[in-house]
Design goal:
eight-stranded mixed β-sheet; globular; mainly beta; about 50% strand; about 10% helix
Length: about 120
């Protein structure tokens, strides 16, 4: 089940991935504190560890922080690229989270679509 799809912004590339609030209910709840580490698998089967957190005070928007920038650098993501995030239920192992990346295809500065990265 797709949880969200997002065009990456400058903040998403350089600091943290802001997660749409409407998909937050599909993630596990923090048992202690305001953050938890989440294992995410990319299309090649590599596991990534992202920290899912919510700020403690007034701004409750969820984000992926720790581990996210390493993923961005590894995939050479740029502003305007797209990520799709999925949750798959597995009876044996429970929920598994997956991420797929689509890179912008530009010709002479014009976006023609997205290719699978």
């Amino acid at each position: 089940m797709q949880l969200f799809s997002k065009l990456l912004s400058r903040t998403d590339i350089h600091k943290r991935l802001s997660i749409p609030m409407e998909s937050f209910g599909s993630f596990p709840r923090c048992k202690v504190g305001h953050a938890l580490d989440l294992q995410v698998k990319d299309k090649r089967g590599s596991l990534w560890l992202f920290r899912l957190s919510i700020r403690k005070k007034n701004y409750l928007k969820p984000v992926f922080s720790k581990g996210w920038c390493k993923f961005v650098q590894s995939k050479n993501l740029k502003v305007g690229d797209k990520v799709n995030f999925y949750k798959e239920e597995d009876e044996a192992s429970g929920a598994q989270f997956k991420i797929k990346v689509k890179k912008q295809v530009k010709i002479f500065g014009v976006v023609f679509g997205y290719s699978k990265a």
